[in-house]
Write a structure and sequence with these properties.
MetI-like fold, flat, single chain, 0% strand, mainly alpha, 68% helix
Length: 367
């Protein structure tokens, strides 16, 4: 029998999956719900953005002129308060003529954090680099050597204090949290009970209570004539508080490891610490990256509570700058927006880095 040729109908060309249009289609117009939400948000933006533009930019005052700010009040923002007070907001009560030192110290520490996030720098000498960074930071901030005038720690403030407290607390809390998490799962009753008491005791009180105890109650238990700097006590308090929360996060990752892997490690003759270091902890930590990053961001923002012990970090320095100045006090909103931008920049950078780490870990598990 004769065969009749029937051509196959043309198929539509494949949809582009990369580029800006593909991203918009996938994230903003994926289905009818997403489309309605996108259109609604665009409508809100078109409604509010013109007024926000007029208040924030078109009718705003950028010069440090309180009279012009009073005249524009209600119709335009007064960014002149930032122009006038930015040095106090950023550096607190640090001596004015020496403020190049906290600027350089903070830039050095932030640079170290950026380098630590780059895979090429994940080498053993990175720890030595951080020892040098911390040594230079405290030398610049405290002075008393290399021809630098001495500045007491109670005069440190602003952004340098915020960055230092968050960085040191995270670095010190992380190894403590790992040990406490392992201790809470220990088969030794004494170690397990001690870790449980520590975690539940710290998590049962707010951070402000821990800072109060570290600053005002702890010196009462010290020998006569012996005193520990308040900054050291605050760092210790934030570290212990953060470690308790982080230990529970890591414990969740430890519990997710299949028991068969531990049995396989025992079969191979690995010791307890070899099993934890080579098998358990790498997998457990990779599972809880988002939760740990949430804790890191929380630590960074919780540094604002140190104002209770008269250490004026970023938020406290803002209050210090405006509360004593009647001319600029009415423009707190603009000043708070300025430090909000600083907090958002740091927190957003940490969250994006967390997403990058998650992507790298998911790529390593892809088959």
């Amino acid at each position: 029998m004769a065969q009749t040729f029937t051509p196959i109908a043309a198929r539509p060309s494949p949809v582009r999956t990369t580029g800006a249009l593909a991203w918009i289609r996938r994230n903003l117009f994926a289905d009818w719900r997403s489309t309605i939400t996108t259109v609604f948000m665009i409508g809100l933006a078109l409604y509010f953005l013109p007024a926000l533009w007029r208040w924030g930019l078109a009718g705003a005052v950028f010069g440090a002129d309180p009279d012009a700010c009073q005249a524009a009040r209600g119709s335009g923002a007064c960014w002149g308060v930032v122009t006038e007070k930015y040095r106090i907001i950023l550096f607190g009560r640090y001596p004015f003529e020496e403020q190049w030192r906290p600027l350089l110290a903070t830039s050095l520490m932030v640079g170290g954090l950026v380098l630590s996030c780059i895979r090429w720098f994940w080498k053993p000498w990175l720890a030595i680099l951080w020892v040098g960074i911390l040594a230079v930071f405290f030398t610049l901030m405290g002075g008393g050597s290399f021809g630098l005038s001495e500045v007491r720690t109670d005069l440190w403030g602003g952004l340098p204090l915020t960055v230092m407290l968050a960085t040191l607390s995270i670095f010190l809390a992380f190894p403590i949290a790992i040990l406490v998490a392992l201790g809470r799962r220990s088969h030794l009753p004494a170690i397990r009970s001690a870790c449980i008491v520590y975690i539940e005791l710290i998590r049962g009180v707010p951070l402000i209570s821990v800072l109060f105890m570290a600053s005002f109650m702890f010196p009462l238990f010290m020998p006569q004539g012996m005193s520990i700097d308040v900054l050291v006590r605050v760092v210790a308090g934030i570290t212990l508080f953060a470690a308790a929360y982080m230990a529970e996060i890591i414990r969740g990752g430890l519990q997710a490891i299949p028991k068969g892997q531990l049995e396989a490690a025992d079969t191979l003759g690995l010791s307890y610490w070899q099993t934890q270091r080579k098998i358990v902890l790498p997998q457990a930590l990779s599972m809880v990256v988002p939760s740990m990053m949430n804790n890191f961001i929380s630590i960074f923002k919780d540094t604002s509570l140190v104002t209770i012990v008269s250490l004026y970090e970023l938020t406290g320095a803002l209050a210090l700058a405006l509360d004593s100045d009647v001319e600029w006090r009415p423009f707190k909103i603009e000043a708070y927006l300025f430090i909000t931008l600083i907090y958002f920049t740091f927190c957003f950078a940490m969250s994006r880095y967390s997403l990058w780490v998650e992507k790298q870990l998911s790529a390593s598990k892809a088959r």
